[in-house]
């Protein structure tokens, strides 16, 4: 019996991917720590519990892999799963990676290399998610409450991408595991965008005035920690903004168009689709 296992199936990208795959008639197993009892193809999956990995893989031949979130050292948890997937004869394994490498997180680079070495292994190196501007992300929460984006990234730009486009690209690889594919794709939106530009677009499209408050990297790290992020991850994520400010993350690719046949959504389109999000309560 063949089908696709979607780890992180209840997350932003996973949920969108499950919908695309099921609409295409692909049997899709939704894996997560708290599976939906009403979904017969939902199954418990926990990176910290290897006993859940085998049952999740059983009866599938393709995998969408979302590594442990908020971790600077995910490889120790993912590596046993990769070995099990190889033994299970998985034909296509697509990992949601990141175009941004967290400081002091070398195992993320090694993990991507391990995935590319798998039979049918593909890494999608996604840029920043446009959905970070939606609650409950800390960025979105502050916009909603205070009409303000706090950032240490200055006027630096990032190739923000809509997770619906990531899901569409992943689906193109997973629907047909025999299709030719590269082992690595840079997944971005159509252009680079700074936080001040994002604020201007939200203001223009929704009528909700959004300001930008420039803060230091240390202040950003403290805000991330206050939101509940693990301290090490919060510090690394704040340090990413230094790279954005210095222009090191201003990269744009054509993978969405290559994989789906259509260009990625613009941030203005994303804001129009979610205009209700920034309304005052």
What does this structure look like?
- By secondary structure, the chain is of the alpha/beta class.
- It has a domain of 170 residues: Rossmann fold, CATH 3.40.50.
- Helix content is 41%, strand content 14%.
- The protein has eleven helices and nine strands.
- The strands form two sheets. Strands 3-2-1-4-5-6-8 form a seven-stranded parallel sheet, with helices on both faces.
- The longest helix has 15 residues.
- The protein is globular and about 50 Å long.
- The chain starts with a strand and ends in an 8-residue tail after the last helix.
- The mean pLDDT is 95.
- This is NAD(P)H-binding protein.
- InterPro entries: Ergot_Alk_Oxidoreductase, NAD(P)-bd_dom, NAD(P)-bd_dom_sf.
- It comes from Streptomyces calidiresistens.
- It holds the Pfam family NAD_binding_10.
Radius of gyration: 19 Å
Helix content: 40-55%
Structural class: alpha/beta
Contiguous low-pLDDT stretches (5 residues minimum) are: none
CATH homology superfamily of the domain at 3-128 and 160-188 and 250-264: NAD(P)-binding Rossmann-like Domain
Protein name: NAD(P)H-binding protein
Pfam families: NAD_binding_10 (PF13460)
InterPro entries: Ergot_Alk_Oxidoreductase, NAD(P)-bd_dom, NAD(P)-bd_dom_sf
Domain NAD(P)-binding: 8-177
């Amino acid at each position: 019996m063949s089908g696709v296992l979607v780890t992180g199936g209840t997350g932003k990208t996973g949920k969108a991917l499950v919908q695309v795959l099921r609409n295409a008639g692909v049997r899709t197993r939704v894996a997560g720590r708290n599976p939906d009892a009403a979904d017969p193809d939902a199954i418990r999956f926990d990176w910290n519990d290897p006993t859940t990995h085998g049952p999740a893989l059983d009866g599938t031949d393709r995998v969408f892999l979302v590594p442990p979130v908020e971790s600077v050292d995910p490889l120790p948890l993912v590596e046993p799963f990769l070995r099990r997937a190889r033994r299970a004869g998985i034909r296509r394994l697509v990992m949601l990676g990141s175009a941004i490498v967290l400081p002091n997180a070398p195992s993320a680079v090694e993990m991507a290399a391990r995935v590319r070495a798998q039979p049918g292994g593909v890494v999608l190196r996604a840029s920043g998610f446009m959905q970070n501007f939606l609650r409950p992300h800390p960025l979105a929460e502050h916009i909603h409450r205070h009409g303000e984006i706090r950032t240490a990234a200055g006027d630096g730009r990032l190739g923000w991408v809509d997770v619906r486009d990531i899901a569409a690209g992943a689906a193109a690889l997973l629907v047909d595991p025999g299709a030719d594919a590269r082992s690595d794709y840079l997944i971005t939106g159509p252009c680079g965008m700074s936080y001040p530009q994002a604020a201007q677009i939200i203001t223009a499209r929704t009528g909700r005035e959004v300001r930008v408050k420039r803060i230091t990297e240390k202040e950003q790290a403290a805000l991330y920690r206050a939101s509940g992020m693990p301290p090490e991850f919060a510090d690394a994520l704040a340090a990413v903004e230094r790279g954005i400010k210095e222009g090191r993350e201003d990269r744009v690719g054509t993978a969405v168009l290559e994989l789906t046949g259509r260009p990625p959504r613009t941030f203005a389109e994303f804001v129009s689709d979610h205009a209700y999000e920034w309304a005052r309560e």
